[in-house]
Amino acid sequence: MQLYDYHVHSDISFDGRLPLAEVCRLALQAGAAGLTFTEHVEFTGPGRPNHIPDFPLYAARIEEAREAFPQLTIGMGLEIGLYPGYKSEIEEIVNGSDWDFILGSLHNVDGLGVYNEDFIRGKNKTDAYHRYFEAMYELFEAYPCFDVAGHLDMIRRNRGFADRTLRYQDYAGELDAILKLLIQRGQGLEINTAGWRFGVGGAHPDPAILRRYKELGGQLVTCGSDSHGEKVLDHIAQGYDWLLDNGFHRLTLYRQRQPYFLDISR
Ligand SMILES: [Zn+2]
Ligand SMILES: [Zn+2]
To answer: How far does residue 205's CA lie from ligand 1's centre (Å)?
Structure first.
């Protein structure tokens, strides 16, 4: 099976820990056919620092890695942390380079990191999850510039709730609106295997969300580890099984932001 990791951070990202070439070496060692870097472009809201990579340095590191590791297909992508009020900045970045792939993610809502206890203080679980999905719909609607939605139910990484399960039917209204918007625009859904590392009992998103995406006509699914260091390719094979178990026999890959497919059926 050809393994591709489509959510990888190197030290080009503000919170990445390893040089890009070292990540490629580890990916090759772990048996990867390819990987696509998704370095953080993070908008956090007023009074907090945004994080923008050094783009020329990033392009140079990718170029070097493609020469050094001809056995690997190496993509140059971004993970854009969406936040209200940055439309022109985001458009400029998206149009400014020859990207292979762009993930759209929600890390901050109402000026707070959704994975921090601050975000849930004073809210019960249902209110916190509702607020997260409501903000997601508004941002996805406002920023159509990404290819695939990253870790759709990342709110489950917040350890402030003892029970972090998410039942699709409790949020069906918001989730259906989000999934229909993605499908209508030809945008995909990410299987994020870091869910296993963060103790949510599987990949993001919950299987019921993945099945609903398919039921509504969605076909574009990528698989990524969300590695910030040595975890490149972590649980990617299990991510493929996760897809197969939920009715997806094709993985989506991107080159210059155009999707193409890899048959992963056994
Ligand atoms: Zn993320
Ligand atoms: Zn990430």
So the answer is: 13
